[in-house]
Amino acid sequence: MSMLTPPGMGGQYRITGDxxxxxxxxxxxxxxxxxxxxxxxxLGLLGWGTVQLIDVFTGGSGGTTAxxxxxxxxxxxxxxxxxxxxxxxxxxxxxxGRITVNVYNATPRSGLAKKTAEELRRRGFRIxxxxxxxxxxxxxxxxxxxxxxxxxxxxxxxxxxxxxxxxASPRADAxxxxxxxxxxxxxxxxxxxxxxxxxxxxxxxAPGTTAPAKTC
Length: 216
Known about the structure:
It comes from Streptomyces eurythermus. By secondary structure, the protein is α/β, with parallel strands linked by helices. It has five helices and five strands, in the order ααβαββαββα. Strands 2-1-5-3-4 form a five-stranded mixed sheet. It is rod-shaped, with a radius of gyration of 39 Å.
C-alpha cells in the first residue's frame, strides 16, 4: 500500500493531482456499473419485443394480453355449449300458434287480405280481423307490407311474423293488446316461401338459441 493511501481505504481510492489531493473510485467499478445498466436495457427491449410479437401473431388489440384473450375464448365456448347468453338465457319467442294476426289490405287490389290471412292460418298463425286498411294507411304503404304491434311485440311477435313477409317494416304503435297487424302494401306479391319461413321460425323460436361463438 502506498504511503499516500489513507488508512482503511483498502486500495480503493488513490491520491491524484499535483496541487490538492483528491480521491476517486477506480475505473473498474465504473465499468461494472455501466455494464449492468446496459444489460438491464437489453433485457427490457427483448421483453417488449416479445409482447409485440405475441400481439401480431395472435391478432390481439392494444391493452389485451394473451392470457386475457384465452380466458375470453373459454367464456365464449362455454356460452356456445350451454346455449346461454353471457348475462342470461335469451328469452324464447312465441310460436305462430300463440300470435293473433289482423290482416288488412292497403292496396287497390281486392281479395289480398283474405287470401293472405288464409295462408297465414295454414302456417299456424291465429287470425283476427281481416279487411281493408284504415284511412291513415290505405294506399299509403309503398313497400311489401307494414307490421304493427305494441312496443313489447317488436322483439317478440313481430319478429316471428316478419319471417312470413320479406321486406315488411315492423313498427310499434300505442296499442296495449297482444295482437299484431299485417298491412299489405303496394309492392306485395306473395308471402315468403313456406319452407324458408318455417325454417326461420324454427330458428327464432328454439329456446336458448344463440349465434355461434367466433372461433378464437
